[in-house]
Specification:
With 335 residues, the chain is α/β, with parallel strands linked by helices. It has a domain at 3-183 and 234-266 and 306-318: NAD(P)-binding Rossmann-like Domain (Rossmann fold), CATH 3.40.50.720. The chain is 40% helix and 17% strand. The chain is built from eleven helices and 13 strands. Helix 5 runs parallel beside helix 6 and helix 7 crosses helix 11. The mean pLDDT is 97. Residues 7-8, 10-14, 31-37, 59-61, 81-83, 85, 100, 104, 123, 125, 178, 181 line the site of nicotinamide-adenine-dinucleotide.
Length: 335
């Protein structure tokens, strides 16, 4: 059984990926410093999986801890989720973001080369595309200057990995550019755990429906879109998790010094207002919302062209927007 080190494996996307990895026959080993997650996630994973995962609490930028892990387990591949991800915070604490997001990747790459661990799947983001002129975006759509230090870390991380592969470091890398991850494990045992006031749409919707927030503000209804609100590609976190499993399997068949990128989205765009009305319909609850002004820096519309991931990785999403919003609500109710 292959051991896969998942950095940030107690987080939102990492925890769901751990589940899918076990189901696909891998042994995930989690390292997480719990800076944006809770150790109880490991208990929930045990309930879902019927067994405990190996867990190291610590910073994946700590080389001595990585060496300790490698001395205790043969590591066959790495999925590097660990990063700070709050776009707003990154604009007033940029060094925190550059230090963690770039620093942890540099340490992971050094570690992989030294221990001859070949395969790396990296969490990138559609944020690297900015506001594209032509939609949907393919992997060939040019990347643009990042809107935030957070977004810039993803762009720089991609460049670092490309240069490292070009240097004949012997590794194989896939960068997955996630669109908007939503939903939760259908059991309601794990999901997204925003600390403080959520910045993202769906956690704000579920917390408003639950009465934790008084009202949701829709940031603008005067854009050039179907109903005036922004358009995004909302991808169920279980489908996103499955893309990592497919990416790992594909990496195993590639030559050394391989680098590629894939969009991970559904291929459909939905407006913010559609998300709210679909949420209300699927779950039979009201969401108190008002239309507010535009949010600075917002992309108007973006969704993925998924031709490449569909054909090369044979990955296809199996959850609908309705499924995502039902599972998000189910998770919120369990909290
Ligand atoms: P998350 O915050 O839920 O998970 C990240 C985990 O990494 C957390 O558990 C945190 O405690 C841990 N972590 C952070 N720095 C660490 C370090 N140095 N060492 C060890 N652990 C560390 O976030 P998520 O939504 O699961 O995102 C996972 C990855 O996907 C991130 O790289 C993020 O930038 C990227 N991404 C997320 C989204 C999104 O909307 N959620 C979209 C695109 C890309
Ligand atoms: C979605 C839409 C908002 C909250 C962010 C990051 C991006 C990527 C994904 C990591 C927008 C609207 C939101 C609210 C609203 N993450 N909205 N009221 O902006 O697509 O992207 O997460 O890589 O880098 O920037 O996601 O969930 O914040 O917003 O109207 O209270 O919902 O204006 O149109 P976004 P989001």
């Amino acid at each position: 059984m292959k051991n896969i080190l998942i950095t940030g494996g107690a987080g939102y996307i990492g925890s769901h990926t751990a589940v899918q990895l076990v189901e696909a026959g891998y042994n995930p080993i989690v390292i997480d410093d719990l800076s944006n997650s809770d150790e109880r996630v490991l208990d929930r994973l045990k309930e879902i999986l019927g067994k405990s995962l190996t867990f190291y609490k610590g910073d994946c930028g700590d080389r001595s801890l990585l060496d300790q892990i490698a001395s205790e387990h043969v590591i066959d591949g790495v999925i590097h989720f660990a990063a700070f991800k709050a776009v707003g915070e990154s604009t007033f604490q940029p060094l925190k973001y550059y230090r963690n997001n770039l620093g942890s990747l540099l340490t992971i790459l050094d570690f992989m080369r030294d221990k001859q661990i070949k395969d790396l799947v990296f969490s990138s983001s559609c944020t690297v595309y900015g506001q594209p002129e032509i939609l949907p975006v393919t992997e060939e759509t040019p990347r643009q200057d990042a809107e935030s230090p957070y977004g810039n870390t993803k762009k720089i991380c991609e460049d670092i990995m490309m240069d490292f592969v070009k240097s004949q470091a012997g590794i194989r890398v896939i960068s997955l550019r996630y669109f908007n991850p939503v939903g939760a494990h259908p059991s309601g045992k794990i999901g997204e755990l925003p600390i403080g006031t959520p910045a993202n749409l769906v956690p704000f919707v579920t917390q408003t429906a639950a009465g934790i927030r008084e009202k949701l503000t829709v940031f603008g209804d005067d854009y050039d879109t179907e109903d005036g609100s922004c358009v995004r590609d909302f991808i169920h976190v279980m489908d996103l998790a499955d893309a990592h499993v497919k990416a790992l399997a594909y990496l195993g068949e590639q030559r050394d010094n391989f680098y590629d990128v894939f969009n991970v989205g559904t291929g459909n765009g939905n407006t913010v207002l559609e998300v709210i009305t679909t949420f209300e319909k699927v779950n039979g609850v009201k969401v108190n919302y008002e239309i507010g002004g535009r949010r600075a820096g917002d992309i108007v519309k973006i969704w993925a062209d998924t031709t490449k991931i569909n054909s090369v990785l044979n990955w296809h999403p199996s959850y609908s927007l309705e499924d995502s919003l039902r599972d998000s609500w189910n998770w919120q109710k369990s909290l």
